[in-house]
Every structure is written in structure tokens, then in C-alpha cells.
């Protein structure tokens, strides 16, 4: 299920009252024989059974109609009551509806496997991102995913995606065996950021849910040791992948203090082995390792310091105007890849993974941000539908179509502190959805041409951005006329006017913010037609089940 946010006006739910059915009139008492009493009793029991079955049939029919047709009021020739209150939000013991089609729970051990979408495999990176919007409200979900991730990493720390069931390697083709597939391994593209995502989720679960860390210690130690080995990939690493240059070793690298990665977060091979966004992500997560496992802190702290020194020494470039920026990749041999990719971690996303700015330079990132979100970035595309960052994963020498990834739009909204930019990026992400979903990428001129029918990652990230937009609306000054005018304009642009049958687009103006929730807000608007203030509520609506003609929108005089 993929949800989107719509603005509707609130009204108390109610049904029209219906006349009560006629009561059975009492007849005169008559003397009855025992046979008559028996006949009367049988007739009475049959009548009761028939009425009971009739009520159940009508109730079932009404329930199914409500389930299948959205908001439906059915006139019944029996006593009706108000629609039951909606069920409470999912408890931490339940899988959120957003993840329900993607998650499989192992009842024996509590592990939770989450496929990435239309691909049946589980990525460490994707699964962390998919549960992140629910990391505070669903601790058992987080724990189940962490347990599954931990087992996968222990099974093969160099893999990037995994199967939900074991496959005998001997049953696979020679090509698949050569690529390291088999067992639980789906693909063995070593990506540094996979372990970073695991540590990010583990640290949150430890900090907020006080989970027992002991079952995860061996996995964390394995990650730290692997990252240490990969500092000297040329001399010490045993990892080879046939699709990489030099018989699987990858392009040449020299020691820098950073840790090597064979592949990018896009699953594409790195041009140069030190991926700067992933190394900064690793440095931030190594701080968490030291706080979670004090006995590992000496090695983790040393590794973190070597990584950050390496980034500062080898991971930047300066243009002709003496403006310094981060490289996307380097090799320690004076080569710097000047680009950015939409997949996270990216240069654009650096503050998202290190909000306390412990391990990167904010000024250096700001100049990098300005560069990657411009035509200077070879994978920044402008079109009729949007402007944003794409990826070599979908714009290739054999397919030069310029495709924008919604991930880049959403990421910009998450890292830019300007509320207007956040709203603008949410607007673009919503506009470019097709079939109610954000996809992997879309053509810069027409979102109807997209890749990946079902790609959960950007949709999960959009939930995060939506929450931040609501918070930004809440903290902004609601009494500022310019702000209210801008907000009104943006809302009218973002949400179709069919949601406002009683508030035509040109006839209302936001005047005050009344309150907010995790995924919603209530605003006050003046309706110039009625002269009455109206409450407009931002609510979560299932875009796959609610079509325009089913949306119930009405107004409520909030002064009463």
C-alpha cells in the first residue's frame, strides 16, 4: 500500500436516521392447548432464526460494500447505527499497512524479511529506509528487521541483497556461482553503505527502545573488521567480483585512510574505489559503535579518524574560482569523480545521515550542494515535468534518456532547511507519481515514462518528508500574511481542487494553523462565499482505494 496526503475538510461522520421497523402488536391472550403451545413455540423459534440470518446477511452485505466501495451510505429497512469508529492506528506489534505487502515474518524466530518492491529480494539499505518512518512507533518491527539483517550480514558481509529462502549453490549456474550467489545471497555487490544502514537502525533501536545489544555484537565487530581490511583493499582484501576491472579487484587504489567499496548505492560499480558519501556515512556510524560497544571503541574511533582524515585530504576538489567541494569518488591516485547520483548516500544527502555535523564540513557541503543541484552535475536534468538528479543506473550509454529519480527531489526536501523548498520538493514528488506511487525514475518531460513499477524506497522517504513539511508549517508564523498567501497558493497547486467542492480554489485563504499530528495538520481558512471560517484537515488517504469521486469533502464552521 502506498499512501499520499490530501487536503479535505472535516465533518463529523454520521448516517441519516431511519424510521424504526414496526413493532409487533400484542394480540389478546387466548387459552392454548399443549399442542398449540408447541406449534407456537416452534413458529417463534423459526421466526427468530430467520430474522437473525437476515440481519447477518444485511450486515455482511453492508460491510463488504463499505470495504470495496470506500465511503458508502446504504439505506436499510432496519434500524441502523452510526458507522463504527475507524480502527486504532497499528500497534507496535503489527506491520504498518505501507509495509504489509512487502514484509514476511518468520514466526519461529521473529525475523522480518522485507522485499524491496517488485524485486523479491531484501537489501540492507532499502529495508532500513523502508522501516525508518516507523522506527519510533513500531519497535518490534525494527527489532525483527534488525535480526534478519544481522543474520544476513553474518552469512555474507560482502553481499548487498538476500533471498528469503536458502538456495543450494550447486543448483545454480556457473555464472551465478562465479558471482558469489547462492545460500541466502541474491547479489554479492559489495557496498559500504549497507553496513552503515544496519548500524543506523541498530543505534536508533538501542537509544529509543533499549534493545539488548548482545545478539548484535558479532555483526558489528565483523563490520568494523571488514571496513578496516578494506582500507588496504589492494593488499589485504579477499573480495573479488568478476564484473569489476582487473579480474575482479576493481580499479587501482592507494591507501588514503578511507575504506573501499566495490559498488555504489545504485548497485553500479564504483569508477574509483573510495565513495565519499559512504565513507562519511561510515564515520558517523562508527561514533555510534563506540557508544553502543565500549569494548570496540578503540578500533572504531581509530578507524573513524582515519576515514575523516582521508576524506579531508583526498576527497575534495577546488574549481577555478577557488571554491572547494567534495568529490563523489576518489582513488588516492589524484583522480576525482565530479558528479552526484540520486541514490542515498549521495553528496546531496550528507547532512541527512549526520545531522549533528560531526564528521563533515557544513560549509564545504553547502558549496557541494549548490554544485550538484545545478547543470554542472552531469546527472542533473531539467525538463517539463521537473528538475532533479538522476543516475548512471538509468541513463546509460545505450539509453541516454534523461531520467530524474524522485529520491533526489525528496532528499533535497529533507536536507534543505528552507520550508518553501521542502514544500516545493514534496509538490514535485507528488506531481510526478504515477498510479499513486513514486517510482525509481521518470522521464524529465513526462512522468508517465518511468522505471520500476513498485519501488518502495522513495515512497518511504516521502513519508519522512511529509512529516517534516507538516512540522515546518506548524513552526512557521501563521499570522504572517505573506506566509499564509504562499501556503494557500502551494496547497492549491499541490492538492486537486476536487477536494474542495465547497471551497473553490480562488475563494479561500489560509489564515491560521490550528494544530498538527505526526502525518497531518489542521488549518483555518476563510471562505469568501459563505463568509465563514472553515477547518481544513491534512489527512492520510490511501490513494489506491480512494478515487476523486469517492472523496467525502465538506465543511465545518469551527466557531460553533
From TrEMBL:
<keyword id="KW-0812">Transmembrane</keyword>
<dbReference type="GO" id="GO:0005975">
    <property type="term" value="P:carbohydrate metabolic process"/>
</dbReference>
<protein>
    <recommendedName>
        <fullName>Protein kinase domain-containing protein</fullName>
    </recommendedName>
</protein>
<dbReference type="InterPro" id="IPR008928">
    <property type="entry name" value="6-hairpin_glycosidase_sf"/>
</dbReference>
<dbReference type="InterPro" id="IPR008313">
    <property type="entry name" value="GH125"/>
</dbReference>
<dbReference type="InterPro" id="IPR012341">
    <property type="entry name" value="6hp_glycosidase-like_sf"/>
</dbReference>
<feature type="domain" description="Protein kinase">
    <location>
        <begin position="508"/>
        <end position="560"/>
    </location>
</feature>
<keyword id="KW-1133">Transmembrane helix</keyword>
<keyword id="KW-0472">Membrane</keyword>
<dbReference type="GO" id="GO:0004672">
    <property type="term" value="F:protein kinase activity"/>
</dbReference>
<feature type="transmembrane region" description="Helical">
    <location>
        <begin position="38"/>
        <end position="59"/>
    </location>
</feature>
<dbReference type="InterPro" id="IPR000719">
    <property type="entry name" value="Prot_kinase_dom"/>
</dbReference>
<dbReference type="InterPro" id="IPR011009">
    <property type="entry name" value="Kinase-like_dom_sf"/>
</dbReference>
<dbReference type="GO" id="GO:0005524">
    <property type="term" value="F:ATP binding"/>
</dbReference>
<dbReference type="Pfam" id="PF06824">
    <property type="entry name" value="Glyco_hydro_125"/>
</dbReference>
Amino acid at each position: 500500500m502506498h499512501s499520499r496526503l490530501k487536503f479535505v475538510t472535516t465533518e463529523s461522520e454520521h448516517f441519516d436516521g431511519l424510521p424504526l421497523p414496526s413493532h409487533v402488536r400484542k394480540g389478546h391472550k387466548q387459552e392454548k392447548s399443549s399442542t398449540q403451545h408447541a406449534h407456537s413455540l416452534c413458529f417463534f423459534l423459526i421466526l427468530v432464526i430467520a430474522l437473525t440470518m437476515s440481519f447477518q446477511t444485511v450486515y455482511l452485505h453492508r460491510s463488504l460494500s463499505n470495504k470495496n466501495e470506500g465511503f458508502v451510505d446504504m439505506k436499510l429497512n432496519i434500524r441502523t447505527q452510526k458507522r463504527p469508529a475507524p480502527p486504532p492506528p497499528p500497534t507496535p506489534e503489527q506491520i504498518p499497512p505501507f509495509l504489509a505487502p512487502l514484509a514476511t515474518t518468520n514466526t519461529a524466530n521473529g525475523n522480518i524479511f522485507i522485499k524491496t518492491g517488485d524485486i523479491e529480494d531484501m537489501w540492507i539499505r532499502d529495508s532500513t529506509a523502508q522501516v525508518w518512518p516507523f522506527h519510533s512507533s513500531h519497535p518490534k518491527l525494527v527489532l525483527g528487521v534488525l535480526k534478519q539483517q544481522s543474520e544476513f550480514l553474518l552469512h555474507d558481509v560482502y553481499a548487498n541483497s538476500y533471498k528469503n529462502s536458502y538456495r543450494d549453490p550447486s543448483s545454480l549456474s556457473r555464472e551465478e556461482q562465479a558471482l558469489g550467489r547462492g545460500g541466502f545471497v541474491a547479489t554479492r555487490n559489495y557496498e559500504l553503505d549497507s553496513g552503515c544502514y544496519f548500524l543506523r537502525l541498530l543505534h536508533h533501536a538501542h537509544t529509543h527502545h533499549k534493545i539488548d545489544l548482545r545478539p548484535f555484537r558479532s555483526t558489528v565487530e565483523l563490520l568494523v573488521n571488514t571496513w578496516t581490511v578494506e582500507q588496504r583493499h589492494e593488499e589485504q582484501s579477499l573480495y573479488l567480483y568478476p564484473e569489476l576491472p582487473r579480474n575482479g579487484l576493481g580499479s587501482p587504489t592507494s591507501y588514503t585512510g578511507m575504506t573501499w567499496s566495490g559498488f555504489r548505492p545504485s548497485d553500479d560499480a564504483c569508477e574509483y574505489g573510495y565513495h565519499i558519501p559512504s565513507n562519511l556515512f561510515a564515520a558517523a556510524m562508527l561514533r555510534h559503535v563506540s557508544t553502543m560497544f565500549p569494548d570496540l571503541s578503540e578500533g572504531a574511533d581509530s578507524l573513524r579518524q582515519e576515514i575523516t582524515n582521508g576524506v579531508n585530504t583526498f576527497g575534495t576538489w577546488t574549481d577555478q574560482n577557488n571554491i572547494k567541494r567534495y568529490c563523489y569518488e576518489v582513488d588516492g591516485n589524484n583522480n576525482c569523480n565530479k558528479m552526484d547520483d540520486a541514490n542515498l548516500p549521495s553528496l546531496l544527502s550528507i547532512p541527512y545521515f549526520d545531522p549533528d555535523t560531526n564528521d563533515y564540513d557544513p560549509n564545504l557541503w553547502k558549496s557541494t550542494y549548490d554544485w550538484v543541484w545545478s547543470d554542472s552535475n552531469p546527472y542533473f536534468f531539467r525538463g517539463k515535468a521537473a528538475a532533479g538528479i538522476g543516475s548512471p543506473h538509468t541513463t546509460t550509454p545505450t539509453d541516454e534518456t534523461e531520467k530524474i529519480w524522485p529520491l533526489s527531489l525528496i532528499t533535497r526536501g529533507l536536507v534543505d532547511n528552507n520550508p518553501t523548498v521542502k514544500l516545493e520538493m514534496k509538490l514535485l514528488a507528488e506531481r510526478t507519481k504515477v498510479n499513486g506511487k513514486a517510482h525509481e525514475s521518470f522521464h524529465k518531460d513526462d512522468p508517465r515514462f518511468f522505471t520500476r513499477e513498485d519501488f518502495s524506497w522513495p515512497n518511504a522517504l516521502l513519508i519522512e518528508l511529509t512529516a517534516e513539511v507538516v512540522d515546518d508549517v506548524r513552526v512557521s508564523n501563521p499570522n504572517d500574511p505573506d506566509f499564509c498567501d504562499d501556503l494557500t497558493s502551494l496547497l492549491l497547486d499541490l492538492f486537486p481542487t476536487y477536494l474542495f467542492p465547497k471551497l473553490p480554489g480562488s475563494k479561500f485563504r489560509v489564515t491560521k494553523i490550528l494544530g498538527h499530528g505526526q502525518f497531518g495538520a489542521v488549518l483555518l481558512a476563510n471562505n469568501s462565499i459563505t463568509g465563514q471560517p472553515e477547518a481544513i484537515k491534512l489527512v492520510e488517504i490511501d490513494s489506491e482505494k480512494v478515487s476523486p469521486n469517492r472523496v467525502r469533502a465538506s465543511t465545518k464552521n469551527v466557531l460553533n
